Amino acid sequence: MNPIKAAAIIALIVTLVAVGFMCVTLYQEKVELKFALEAARCLSCISGKEAAVANWRAVQSHLGLLDAEAKYGEEKEYLLKHAGEEPVNIDVPCPTCDLPGPDYTTPGAVAIVGLMVSLTLFGFARRRVA
């Protein structure tokens, strides 16, 4: 077999594998829909933590104001009313955050280069008719 033709066939096989991998990746990610949903969950988790921290700061501020005004009875009542609102796990990272997006560039580039190489090599492998 002609070595150029063999190289062209190998390049074409590499191209087909890259295209197949890209199609599988595209199918798995459903055109980044899964990633977008996970990113939305991450934002929801972060905003929930930020809201809990802001609420607790407001509670502490009000408690400090009541303490400064020497309203100890109201302070104790307010503290009992908001005792369960202290955020506990604000430093724990959300499980869906920092997910990398799907990578289509690498298999896409391999497919394009492989197709160009295989077409070029098939062009050289053809017999030249004089």
Properties at a glance:
mainly alpha; 4 helices; 0% strand
Give a verbal description of the structure.
The protein is mainly alpha-helical and 130 residues long. Helices cover 72% and strands 0% of the residues. The protein is built from 4 helices and no strands. It starts with a helix and ends in a 5-residue tail after the last helix. The model has no long low-confidence stretch (mean pLDDT 78).
Q: Outline, from the CA principal axes?
A: rod-shaped
Structural class: mainly alpha
Please tell me how large the radius of gyration is: 31 Å
H/E element order: HHHH
Number of helices: 4
Fold topology:
Layout: H1 3-29, H2 33-68, H3 72-81, H4 105-125
Structure at a glance:
By secondary structure, this protein is mainly α. Helix content is 72%, strand content 0%.
